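Below is how a single chain appears once it has passed through the pipeline. First comes the sequence as given, then the structure the pipeline wrote out for it. We keep one example in the README because the format questions we get most often are answered faster by looking than by reading.
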Amino acid sequence: MQNQYPNNKLLKEMISLMVRIPDTPGSLIELIKPISNNGGNIFAVLHHHDKKTDDMIPVSVSFELPEGLHEASLRNIKKELQEKRIQIDNIILGAERQQIMVILSGHVFDTDVVDTIDRLASKGIKVSELHAIFTEMNEISNVRLKLNISETITKKKVFEELNDICKEKNLILLRS
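Resulting structure:
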């Protein structure tokens, strides 16, 4: 299949889109489709189900668009979302994506590293890389994580979540 987005270089800046979607099955997919269909590279989706009002759920999506297609793609995304009756609350252009490197030391795999990644993702913290040297299950592991966060999430919140996970799982957090 031919790439419909030639020279698919991504901009360094991000776009943060805040919307409200109906609390019905498939609504999140309907939100993501226009972004994907217009060349968007999604970095984070925060689904705030706990803040639902009038059967509408706030959702934030952070994504990048291919260079040269930025304006047209964003215009198409907004049009498609409006046609799907997805309420756009805010669009932040040029939102910076921050990266944080941390090392978790301890029984990282034995305490369910997938659970750790899922818990971070539920807070809008994307683990984009995981580096580890596998040891015996009863030995201590050191796992380096590269975390991507948008400007809507503070580093303080990231480290609060990491500290909670480490305390619960008896891990040591080393931060850069």
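The first strand starts at residue 14 and ends at 22.

See the next section for the split statistics.
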